[in-house]
């Protein structure tokens, strides 16, 4: 099974403009993400998809593979689909360009889920730790069936506990937070990217509901911990601190060879 990892990256960001090119660690943020993706054993190829010449040049500078895309894409999924249309691959994994702490083993888990021919897509989830996360609309929840296929995603607390209180310590966990990393069958990605938004998607503002709303199947893999993305200056400062303390084999550690 051929697997391509595509990392969409854009310069514009309302909370942290130019974040792919932040470099306080000595490496571009997009370079950290690229190297984590390259460490995944499943990857036949890794590339960055961008509409910005500065990001393109930075990726080329550190020896990565970058491709230019159109500038009018509404979402990262659309950008990945444009690139996927030109790739000779079976599976496309979308790794966001602002997730430098994503575990390569989690990427491999996604690829493994796609070995099931019944899966159009795969994604990840982590147990919800507390009530604050459960009730927060900023935390996307997913409910799965007995085969760990997604039944629904929501910003609302699901499954709702009508009687009593949620037990977040129970294992296996019933309450799951969705993590926004995806694997797609290439042909399915091209089809779903070209489909109009689904009413459920428009209501919850969640792209993955286009898949469920049109009858697609999403396998859900479970991981122990959520990886932290970089959305704000404070997030980036925390990542820099983590890296300098030895995270990812940073200043005080040894990074696994690619």
Automatic annotation (TrEMBL):
Pathway: Nucleotide-sugar biosynthesis; CMP-3-deoxy-D-manno-octulosonate biosynthesis; CMP-3-deoxy-D-manno-octulosonate from 3-deoxy-D-manno-octulosonate and CTP: step 1/1
Keywords: Cytoplasm, Lipopolysaccharide biosynthesis, Nucleotidyltransferase, Transferase
Xref: CDD domains: CMP-KDO-Synthetase (cd02517)
Any GO BP: CMP-keto-3-deoxy-D-manno-octulosonic acid biosynthetic process
Gene Ontology MF: a single term: 3-deoxy-manno-octulosonate cytidylyltransferase activity
Active-site residues from the entry: 217
Secretion signal span: none
EC number annotated for this UniProt entry: 2.7.7.38
Location in the cell: Cytoplasm; Membrane
Any GO CC annotation of this UniProt entry: cytosol
SUPFAM superfamilies the UniProt entry points to: Nucleotide-diphospho-sugar transferases (SSF53448)
Enzyme's top EC category: transferase
Catalytic activity: 3-deoxy-alpha-D-manno-oct-2-ulosonate + CTP = CMP-3-deoxy-beta-D-manno-octulosonate + diphosphate
Main location per the UniProt record: cytoplasm
InterPro entries: Asparaginase/glutaminase_AS1, Cytidylyl_trans, KdsB, Nucleotide-diphossugar_trans
Pfam family, one: CTP_transf_3
Role summary: Activates KDO (a required 8-carbon sugar) for incorporation into bacterial lipopolysaccharide in Gram-negative bacteria.
UniProt-listed NCBIfam families: kdsB, PRK05450.1-3, PRK05450.1-5, PRK13368.1
Family: Belongs to the KdsB family.
Name used for this protein in its record: 3-deoxy-manno-octulosonate cytidylyltransferase
Taxonomic source organism: Frigoriglobus tundricola
Native organism taxonomy: Bacteria, Pseudomonadati, Planctomycetota, Planctomycetia, Gemmatales
Gene this protein is translated from: kdsB
